[in-house]
Amino acid sequence: MPEPTARKSARRHHWRRDLIELAALFTAVAVADMVANTVAHGPGGPFLLIVSAVALVATAAFHTWWARRHSHAPPAPDPAGSGAVTGAATADEPAGTAPAGAAGPGAAPRETALWRMRTTVRDEPGSLAALCTALAHDRVDILTLQTHPLAEGTVDEFLLRAPAELPAARLTRGIAAAGGGDTWLERADAHDLVDAPTRVLGLATRTALDAAELPLALRQLLGRCTIHSLPAVSVTGRPTGESAPVEGVLESTTMRLRDPHGGVIAVERPYLPFTPTEFARARALVELDARLGPRIPRSQDVLTLPEGNEITVRRAGQDDVEAAKAMHDRCSDRTLSLRYHGPLGDADRYLNHLLSPRFGRTLAVQTASGRLVGLGHLLWDGDETEVALLVEDEWQRRGIGSELLQRLVALAVEAGCDSVYAVTQSSNTGMVAAMRGLGLPLDYQIEEGTLVVTARLPKTRTAARERRSAAERTTTSEPGATPGPRPAFERPSFEQAEH
């Protein structure tokens, strides 16, 4: 209410209150005069005075008893079972939303489940309140809420804690009845409890430290989606025609962003359209990557082979293209054919693509003299992830390929990948043995002499870290330290396992 209107209303109410008080005063004086005349001049005056005093005392005692009894009584339960509560709501809990599983004093906590929900409502007052009321009716707690304004409405994204026995269909029906449309619902986990600004800052930090993190950061930012890096120039040097404007393109379930390294980053999510807010966040991550330029973490591990030679395993990038070309020149035709699945005259023309952080991560193995003798690639392929290995002939059958494969799988688990696959020739039993050495469930597919081996990765990152730590305890030694046990390199030797 505007301030002048509020002052006028206050003055009007003050005048009415004064009039009522004045009328009550005159009435009290008249009644008192009548009672005094009755007591003084009436035949039953003293008796009437005593009865009035007793009535006043009884009324005061009854009022005191009633007030004490009902001021401390707990609120009555909702007979409709709606679960609505009164009073002030917390910052993360809108008014009218009851905590899930609140079964009353002394009751055991009920089991709950986390849900991520997105729905579209009309952009008008009361639409969000109707959604909150519908969720409160099913005893659903709203943990976080984000709004994405659109031209034709507003997209509300919730993180919900609901009773475990509440089915998704009932929750969706309640939202539809409250005015929500195009509702999307999926189970969430503890990682989704991080608020949106914190999550975005964490993804930006990962992208700033490692250029290879950009596709993974986009996938974690946008949920289940497919990301393709489409280069402007093919591996044969021909233009592909892939380009995008500087500001990018948003088309419902597809967005196209200009790749800082040339070409386009295409993101697709068929099951849920992108919002302008999501598009702006994705574009900001790509712009951050463009400003920082190429960057690769410089950490490295020094390992000791069974014969006593030391090798270094580190991340590789496009600065290693020349050293990788020299290694290709030293490899035999059979080694290159097993790596590239057939005859290949110019294997080095693929190196700019393979060593680019935009398409994955690469591990390099170099000797104490600095010569590159092995490469392991973890390549992002849309929703899937490929692993590929190449070890120089003279350094094969020493466990280098198996070590690279274990480390690549650990990187895939840390990146949140569900599986990795290796493509090789069906005659390459060594690669199959290396994949089996991972101790993971494997799927095999053979088509016209080409073998695809897929390893399903554990769901948690903890298992991968423990497996990697166990491997490092048996293989890693710092310069000048006594080499540890060597069982990790003393596996049965196999030919061409490093390809």
Brief sketch in words of this structure:
The chain has 499 residues and is α+β, with helices and mostly antiparallel strands. The chain has 13 helices and 16 strands. The chain is 37% helix and 22% strand.
Structural features, described:
- This protein has 499 residues and is of the alpha+beta class.
- Helices cover 37% and strands 22% of the residues.
- It has helices at residues 3-41, 45-71, 127-137, 168-177, 196-209, 214-222, 276-292, 321-330, 333-340, 351-354, 400-414, 429-436, 461-475; strands spanning 112-121, 141-149, 154-163, 181-187, 226-230, 249-251, 254-258, 264-268, 300-304, 310-316, 360-367, 372-381, 384-391, 419-425, 442-447, 450-456.
- The strands form four sheets. Strands 9-10-11-12-13 form a five-stranded antiparallel beta sheet, sandwiched between helices. It has a four-stranded antiparallel beta sheet with strand order 2-3-1-4, covered by helices on one side. It has a four-stranded antiparallel beta sheet with strand order 5-8-7-6, with helices on one face.
Number of helices: 13
**CATH architecture heading of the largest domain:** 3-Layer(aba) Sandwich
Mean pLDDT: 75
Q: How are strands sequenced across the largest beta sheet?
A: 9-10-11-12-13
Shape: elongated
Rounded to an integer in angstroms, the radius of gyration calculated over CA atoms is 37 Å
Order of helices and strands: HHEHEEHEHHEEEEHEEHHHEEEHEHEEH
The proportion of strand residues reads 15-25%
Beta strand count: 16
CATH topology of the largest domain: Aminopeptidase
Query: Which ranges are low-confidence, i.e. pLDDT below 50, for 5 or more consecutive residues?
Result: 1-7, 72-106, 461-499
Q: Major sheet: size, sense and barrel closure?
A: 5 strands, antiparallel
Quote the distance from N terminus to C terminus.
Answer: 76 Å
